[in-house]
Amino acid sequence: EDPSLERHFKGHRDAVTSVDFSRAKKQIVSGSMDSSLMIWSMKPQMRAYRFVGHKDAVLCVQFSPSGHLVASGSRDKTVRLWIPSIKGESTVFKAHTATVRSVHFSSDGQSLVTASDDKTVKVWTVHRQKFLFSLSQHINWVRCARFSPDGRLIVSSSDDKTVKLWDKTSRECIHSFCEHGGFVNHVDFHPSGNCIAAGGTDSTVKLWDVRMNRLLQHYQGNSVVNSLSFHPSGNYLVTASSDSTLKILDLLEGRLLYTLHGHQGPATCVAFSRDGDFFASGGSDEQVMVWKTNFDTDYCDVVKAQKYGSSVDGTHGTGVEMDCGIHHKKTKTQDSSRTHEQQDEENSLANTLEHILGQLDVLTQTVSILEQRLTLTEDKLKECLENQQKILQNKTN
């Protein structure tokens, strides 16, 4: 069954720049050139929340892994961390000296990586937004930065036509991929962490193995690639292009699987839900669209990657095996040693832990909000005292 358009959301007053699903698939966040974020509910008839605070276009948004926080980056040079509730409270910090193009949480939710037009990539703690370090070898705007699933690596893409791979511990650039012929708009890690995909203004999508630093696949399209997202299985990739289309690539067979039309004007962003059942897209038409994936449920049954023949639009693939981490289904024999009771107990503990971590995120964020308010109050009090002193001085004079 082909992917199908399930819902579309209207509410933004300018182009949508970024979309992301919450972990439980209950909410979608979108950022826009209209300087706002919107939180949309997947439940019918539920109202959307509009979050206002940024003073210029919001270019990137992402839910934290727990779903209890949302990060946003803006042309106003700041990053905000929001509690996605009806109050829409947030803390703000000046992250860069120019437009913030990208925000991304580490998989443990403890760190945030940001990318900017000031040509740097910066890493911060989520709690109290403490600056940790900066990566600064790009020589043009940095469009996108992402943590690897294990948090050990960072990948970044830039208008200097390179994709750079960084070691988070040593803070050194391990490798620069220079095969793109234009600005590299978006980059992300494969769910296995063993390869990366990048798309850009040269209308191509390229996949590299980060262990061998070799090109695995090359897809030649007809239009600028603005955004891409891996399916959680690692077997598919969806792209958003300036020709208004979304394209789904089959990475096992190295071919274009679907071309989807829905947006009027450039499709600017796209993201799979955490379980891959849905994907959301945004466009210059101010709309957020939600699509049902409808992939064959046996997509995880492939045991071995196939050799590639031709890839998108008749251009030839590299003829290498895609061995960077296809997710396989567990066999029954693997599962038979564990009882349902054990699995239920483990799931219950994991859910409890996730809930506690989520509540900790909210508590820490609330403390940060209160601290910022106290600082503002202190500043106002100081200002009032200074004004009173000036008035007294003027009177005595």
UniProtKB/TrEMBL annotation:
GO biological process, one term: microtubule-based process
Transmembrane segments: none
InterPro entries: WD40/YVTN_repeat-like_dom_sf, WD40_PAC1, WD40_repeat_CS, WD40_repeat_dom_sf, WD40_rpt, WDR55/POC1
WD repeats: 9-50, 51-82, 93-134, 135-176, 177-218, 225-259, 260-292
GO cellular component, one term: ciliary basal body
Domain of life: Eukaryota
Assigned keywords, A-Z: Coiled coil, Repeat, WD repeat
Pfam families: WD40
Function per UniProt: May play an important role in centriole assembly and/or stability and ciliogenesis.
Sequence similarity: Belongs to the WD repeat POC1 family.
Name this polypeptide is given: POC1 centriolar protein homolog A
